[in-house]
Write a structure and sequence with these properties.
The complex is a heterodimer of chains A (about 300) and B (about 120).
Chain A (H helix, E strand, L loop, with lengths): L1 H17 L5 H15 L2 H4 L1 H20 L4 H111 L1 E5 L2 E7 H4 L9 H15 L6 E6 L6 H21 L7 E5 L12 H7 L1 E6 L9
Parallel strand pairs in A: 3-4
Antiparallel strand pairs in A: 1-2, 2-5, 3-5
Helix pairs in contact in A: 1-2, 1-4, 2-4, 2-5, 4-5, 5-7
Chain B lengths: L1 H10 L8 H12 L6 H22 L3 H45 L8
Helix pairs in contact in B: 1-3, 2-3, 2-4, 3-4
The chains are: A alpha+beta (about 300), B mainly alpha (about 120).
């Protein structure tokens, strides 16, 4: 600072004493130096300004010794450039500081943004995980419901298939039995009526050989529906005593039952009962009527899965 | 090319004229892009002219004038370098400030439309 002050005083003295004779280069140098020494260069580029001061001092000295020489002009020119270099250096340092601050500001902002982004990302991940957990729970629930629905549908389909199969079997059995005897569809079940004269000789409970062949055909149809309960009913005409007819009809019903059991129909599903002459279906006063009353009825229980018609 | 030409010329002149500082200053100014900065390019041009003048003085056996002119050339080349650097720093500074502003703008909350 002391050097600068001296230089300024020297400059001022020369300006005062020799302003009229100073070359243009020196005048310019003084002006630029004054500007530089009072500007930012004094603070941020003291080394460069010091060089400028020395240059101007040399120029002033030369001017004092030889005012009009090219040496003075060149030294003044150089002094002006040195002052300009000091100013430019100050400007560079100023800009560099600004750049550094801007870069620091930029980095701090970036760091802050990255931190904020990380926080946001963490929150988003948490929310997403929660959402996924909720989604998985819903998906699992949905899956169970779907499985239950599928199972239910399958059960319904199976039941429907079974029902159709049962209906088909019933229809087939009914058609087959219709070929073997009179078949009636009554509320108590399918009733197959076999003529007593075809099955038994008069007043006996032993099956005729021909009857066995007919019963074989019936048994074959029944075994295809072997889960049905059977009721074998024996009936007689009104000839003879009631007790005898009752006993005769029971014996004939038992004989048919035994035959079916022999053919592997389950015994617990077959019941046999004799009704004697108590359930006539025709007039006993005629031979034809009595022949119709002598009969064995096989009642096949309805399939519970088949809707009644 | 200019530097090479000057070197050839110097080969034919006085061997005592030391132009290294001037030529290296001019080369440095060219390398930092002084030709592309208006103020710097002016001083680069002056530095070259002054170097040529110095050589002319040297050819004419005006050694002191030549040396004095070389000093002018050197200082003009030096100023061209400083002005180039200043321009570069200013450009970088403006870009840095613009980046900061853009980053602020990009990350500021979206203003709510009052309508």
């Amino acid at each position: 600072m002391k050097t600068y002050s001296i230089s300024i005083l020297v400059c001022a003295a020369f300006i005062a004493g020799c302003a009229a004779h100073a070359p243009r280069e020196l005048v310019n140098a003084r002006e630029v130096y004054r500007r530089a020494s009072t500007g930012p260069a004094a603070q941020v580029a003291p080394a460069e300004l010091h060089v400028a001061t020395q240059a101007l001092d040399k120029a002033e000295k030369s001017f004092k010794e030889d005012p009009d020489s090219y040496v003075t002009r060149d030294l003044a020119y150089i002094a002006q450039r040195r002052a300009e270099i000091a100013e430019a250096t100050a400007s560079i340092i100023f800009e560099q500081k600004g750049n550094t601050l801007a870069k620091k500001d930029y980095q701090e902002m970036q760091t802050k943004i990255v931190e904020q982004t990380k926080q946001d990302l963490t929150q988003t991940r948490t929310a997403l995980a929660e959402s996924e957990r909720s989604g998985e729970s819903s998906a699992a629930k949905l899956s169970v419901e779907q499985d239950a629905r599928i199972a239910s549908d399958q059960r319904a389909a199976t039941a429907q298939t079974d029902r159709i199969a049962a209906e088909n079997r019933a229809l087939a059995a009914q058609a087959a039995l219709a070929k073997l005897g009179e078949v009636k569809n009554e509320p108590r079940g399918i009733v197959v009526t076999l003529s007593g004269s075809l099955l038994f000789a008069s007043n006996v409970t032993t099956l005729l050989p021909a009857a066995m062949a007919r019963l074989d055909q019936v048994a074959e149809v029944l075994l295809n529906n072997s889960e049905r309960r059977l009721m074998i009913e024996g009936h007689t005409d009104s000839q003879g005593t009631n007790s005898h007819n009752l006993q005769l009809s029971q014996g004939r019903a038992d004989a048919v039952r035994s035959y079916f059991i022999q053919k592997h129909y389950r015994a617990n599903l077959i019941q046999a009962q004799g009704f004697g002459e108590t359930h006539p279906i025709a007039d006993n006063s005629s031979a034809e009527g009595r022949a119709n009353n002598r009969r064995v009825e096989i009642i096949i229980e309805r399939d519970p899965t088949v809707s009644s018609q | 090319m200019f530097i090479i030409a000057i070197s050839i010329v110097l080969g034919c002149t006085s061997p005592l004229l030391r132009t290294e500082a001037s030529t290296s200053g001019i080369r440095a100014a060219e390398e930092v892009g002084a030709a592309g900065v208006p103020q710097a390019s002016l001083h680069l041009l002056l530095a070259k002219e002054e170097l040529e003048k110095a050589i002319e003085f040297s050819k004419n056996d005006e050694r002191k004038k030549a040396e004095s002119m070389l000093l002018r050339s050197e200082v003009d080349a030096e100023l061209a370098v400083a002005l180039s650097r200043e321009d570069t720093e200013k450009i970088e500074g403006r870009a840095a400030v613009a980046r900061v502003r853009q980053l602020r703008q990009d990350n500021s909350p979206t203003p709510v439309n009052p309508l």
